[in-house]
Amino acid sequence: LLLLLLPALPAAAPGDFDPYRVLGVGRGSSQADIKKAYKRLAREWHPDKNKDPGAEDRFIQISKAYEILSNEEKRTNFDRYGDAGESQGFSQHQHRQFHRFHDGFYFDESFFHFPFNSERRDTSDERYLLHFSHYINEIVPDSFKKPYLIKITSDWCFSCIHIEPVWKEVAQELEALGAGIGVVHAGYERRLAHHLGAHSTPTLLGLINGKITFFHNAVIRENLRQFVENLLPGNLVEKITDKNYIRFLSDWRKDNKPHVLLFDHMPVVPLLYKLTAFAYRDYLSFGYVYVGLRGTEELSSQYNINVYSPTMMIFKEHIDRPADVVQAREMKKQLIDDFLSQNKFLMVARLTNQRLFQELCPVKKSHRQRKHCVVLLTREGEKFAEAYEAFLTFAVANTKDTLKFVYIYNERQPEFADALLMDEEKYRGRSAVVILERRNNAGKIAYRALEEAWQGSKEDNFILLDLLDQLRTDPGLLSSETVVADLNDELAPMFLIRWLYSTLDYISDCWDSLFHSNWREMMPLLSLLFSALFILFGTVIVQAFSDSSDTRDSPPSEKEETAAKTEKNDVSFSKESNSRIPKKGFVEVTELTDINYTSNLVRLRPGHMNVVLILSNSTKTPLLQKFALEVYTFTGSSSLHFSFLSLDKHREWLEYLLEFAQDAAPIPNQYDKHFLERDYTGYVLALNGHKKYFCLFKPHRSGDEGGTLASCEDYDASLHAEARGKPSCSPGSRSIKNKLHKLSFWMERLLEGSLQRFYIPSWPALD
């Protein structure tokens, strides 16, 4: 009986309100289904539309249910605890009552031994837990010094339990080697989990240089170690043998870094050494010598290496002897860090960027923490080598914690050199030594230069040594002050190279995301890609089926504002036509025949019109010349096409069309004796193939200087006169060219949309 009652107790704790039941959806419904159900019920039960007395209460319940289910956090709380989080105190009170109830019967949840219960879980992950602000402000910047292996987990995750032993072992091992470890609880840090792109648990990923890489192999120790090792750049450590060690150690001048050699009997570079090289890559260059390999005997003999114990040597300006050595049977991270942190810089480092200047010559914080820099301002070339060697010898003999010896090349840092030397003649073409102290981060320094140029003589050494001794007791010795600009970054790659590296990284990220990342993250990119391909191929297909004359039209210029048109569906046509600047030095007029009739008229694109001139064989040349002159200024519009029709071949087609261009006036039938005598040469038709209408231009009549624009309405009266056998447009009564007089005014009205339109049911065949 107790076992039957126990499941019912927590079920009775929450209230009777069930948002799933109110909206009529299941617990596994998507947000789209929930939203659809809410809209349907809201419309049905809205108090303004539903007059039922309980409509208002029902509408409030629907809104509350949607508020819970549309919020993922509230929905999760309701699914887990039967409460959306608004009455947690009441729920917790009932939960405590329940615990007291079953504890009184000596019943405890540990009886079931649920390993996924968060209260009983191993607390080893707690010190690795990450929060969003901690990740953004600390972990991401730190990933430029060491890679991070991050696990995304959650409660009630059986797979998380399965990988827990392997994860714990690998996390401890990698942390000891210098890698970073992080754990994100997706239930409590949902924002961070979403930011990392983790949509399921468990998820393992690596973070290096701010870049996220997902782990996709089986969760075993070897795969996880290899995954972290693959995150590191491949050129961190160079393999060194007898053939290349001199070249490697001699690069200190070009790299402006000390060079580190690790001698070990392992055939592959240890992961500890690679992680160390990544952490100190801005300060040191690393090489690895496999002492068991043939071709390293000379190297091992020269530096007296013990082949049975790992040995680390650091070389600075002198490659014949190491500046420092450490040897141990088992190299530990702490030992290596202490050794390298004391040898991060050359004895006399060259100031190549502002960061190095700030580290070597820090701003004074107190009187006891004063640090001075002795700067040699010299130039490149053999002429200045002797002065540099003398300065290096002096620096090695007088190294102190409060003194740093550096040098710069005047031609590479001209602003810095000019600020200290003031362009004095005695230093021109010669080396100089300046003692300086940085006063603030804005570039203010106090300094004093040696009176004479530095030549490296014994006298110069005595003068400099005397100044340094005085400086220990008299800080006011640095009497001059100035402000120097930030140093140029001499070792920064060129812009083109940086752009190329950035492009390669972006391509690599896209490649990795395409084949390995969560497809949910790739959907925006894939949608954009397929949309671009669809538009591209759609354009190609449309152009392939369009007429060749249309493809030769250049795109229209910028559209200008136009007056309101009589019909809204023609606004686009009139706007595009308003920019009529000719783009060619000629007018392209094609003959309208049965071959191109379909493409040039019947299937003409929406918004386009074909302006057709009617002519005969005898009037072809003069009419085409006049037609070209009249319409030339309108050829800039890509929506206008120009053609001519032979009256001798297609009179019947024209007569059929003109029957629709009259209102009440009768049209003589084909048995009229003047049927074949009517002269239509000089008529112009503007044909809109898509909307099946046309406008008509009638030739100008002699003596009509009042200037009829030959609009479509004038056609009826002229047609009556022609029907009586008195053609007003005969070639004998006026010149042929004069027929197209004022055609340009008619074109203006055509583009304005003010001409009368004659609609036809369908375009007749052109036989």
Q: What does the model show?
A:
- The protein has 767 residues and is of the alpha/beta class.
- The protein has 5 domains: 19-80, Helix Hairpins (Orthogonal Bundle), CATH 1.10.287; 123-231, Glutaredoxin; 237-342, Glutaredoxin (3-Layer(aba) Sandwich), CATH 3.40.30.10; 349-483, Glutaredoxin (3-Layer(aba) Sandwich), CATH 3.40.30.10; 586-663 and 679-699 and 736-766, Glutaredoxin.
- 40% of the residues lie in helices and 14% in strands.
- The chain contains 29 helices and 21 strands.
- A 6-stranded mixed beta sheet has the order 10-12-11-13-14-15, with helices on both faces. It has a 6-stranded mixed beta sheet with strand order 16-18-17-19-20-21.
- A hairpin with a 2-residue loop joins β3 and β4.
- α4 (31-45) runs antiparallel to α5 (55-70).
- It is extended, with a radius of gyration of 45 Å.
- The model is unreliable at 1-15, 86-121, 548-579, 663-673 and 703-733 (pLDDT under 50).
In brief:
The chain is α/β, with parallel strands linked by helices and 767 residues long. It has a 6-stranded mixed beta sheet, with helices on both faces. The chain has a 6-stranded mixed beta sheet with strand order 16-18-17-19-20-21. The longest helix has 27 residues, at 519-545.
Chart the SSEs and their pairings.
Elements: H1 2-5, H2 8-12, H3 19-23, H4 31-45, H5 55-70, H6 72-81, H7 88-104, H8 132-142, E1 148-153, H9 158-177, E2 180-185, H10 190-196, E3 203-208, E4 211-214, H11 221-231, E5 237-239, H12 245-250, H13 252-255, E6 259-264, H14 271-279, E7 285-290, H15 297-302, E8 311-315, E9 324-327, H16 333-341, E10 348-350, H17 354-360, E11 372-378, H18 385-397, E12 403-409, H19 414-421, E13 432-438, E14 444-449, H20 458-473, E15 480-483, H21 495-515, H22 519-545, H23 548-551, H24 571-577, E16 589-591, H25 597-602, E17 609-615, H26 620-631, E18 640-646, H27 647-658, E19 684-688, E20 693-697, H28 715-723, H29 743-752, E21 758-759
Parallel strand pairs: 1-2, 5-7, 6-7, 10-12, 11-12, 16-18, 17-18
Antiparallel strand pairs: 1-3, 3-4, 6-8, 8-9, 11-13, 13-14, 14-15, 17-19, 19-20, 20-21
Helix pairs in contact: 4-5, 5-6
